[in-house]
Amino acid sequence: MNIGGLNTFSLSDFSGRVAAVVFTQGCNFRCPYCHNSALLACHTPAQPLIPEETFFEFLKARFDRLDAIVVSGGEPCIQPDLPTFISQIKAMGFPVKLDTNGSRPHVLRRLLEGHLLDYIAMDIKAPLHMYDDLAGVSVQVEQIEESIVLISQAGVEHEFRTTLVEPLLSRMDIASVRKLVPPGSRHRLQKFRPEFALDPALRVSTNKHSED
C-alpha cells in the first residue's frame, strides 16, 4: 500500500469514534479545488511514503486508544492492494471507514462483498454534465452513478458529500447534485478551503473576494 500520510488522532472523520486517518498516495482526479495536492501523484510523490509496516506498528501501539480507522486519499480505490490492506486492519478489530470519489464501483463492490467496510463517504463532485470540469479529468459518469446506487443499497452506514466551491458551483448546481442522492441517504456540504486549492486561480479569486 502506498501511504502518503497519517493523522494519528481525529474526532471528526468518523462520527462518534476516535479514529486515525491513513491517506493513500495517488489520485485519478485533479479537482481544481483539491486541498490535498501532495497526495495526487501516483509515481513521484512530493514526500516520502510511510512504510506499511510502520503503519501497522502504530496501530498495535494505539490499539487501546483508537475506535476506528479511516482510509482516505488521494483515492484509495486505485490502490490494487486495498482489499488486502483493509482486511489486515479489520483483522485487528478496527471498524473501517472509506473515503472515495466513486470512480471505481468494481472495487467498492469487492470491498462490500467481503464485508470490509463499516462506513462509506463518497464525494459527488457536481451535476453529471459538469463532472469533467470539477474533477479536472474526463470522467465516466456511469461509474459515478453505479457507485451511488451500490453504496445506497449496501446496507452500510454512508453519506454523500459535495464541496461547495462557489466560483464553480451555484446553488442550482447543488440542487441538481442532491437529485442524484437516493432517498434515505445523507448528503452533506463540505466547506471549500481556498488557501490550499490546487488551481491557483481559485486561491487568488477567493482571496480577492474576501478582501472586498
Describe the secondary-structure layout.
Blueprint: E1 3-10, E2 19-24, H1 52-61, E3 68-72, H2 82-91, E4 96-100, H3 105-113, E5 119-123, H4 131-135, H5 141-152, E6 157-164, H6 171-178, E7 186-191, H7 200-211
Parallel strand pairs: 2-3, 3-4, 4-5, 5-6, 6-7
Antiparallel strand pairs: 1-2
Strand order of the largest sheet: 1-2-3-4-5-6-7
Question: Nearest-angstrom radius of gyration?
Answer: 17 Å
Number of helices: 7
What is the residue-mean pLDDT, rounded to a whole number? 93
Could you state the order of secondary-structure elements as H and E?
A: EEHEHEHEHHEHEH
The CATH architecture category equals Alpha-Beta Barrel
N- to C-terminal separation? 45 Å
Low-pLDDT stretches are 206-212
How many distinct beta strands? 7
- Which of globular, elongated, flat, extended, rod-shaped describes the shape? globular
Count of discrete domains: 1
Q: Overview of this structure, please?
A:
By secondary structure, the protein is an alpha/beta fold. It has a single domain, classed as Alpha-Beta Barrel (TIM Barrel). 31% of the residues lie in helices and 20% in strands. It contains seven helices and seven strands. Strands 1-2-3-4-5-6-7 form a seven-stranded mixed β-sheet, with helices on one face. Strand 2 (19-24), helix 1 (52-61) and strand 3 form a beta-alpha-beta unit. The longest helix is centred in the last third of the chain and has 12 residues, at 141-152. The protein is globular, with a radius of gyration of 17 Å. The protein starts with a strand and ends with a helix.
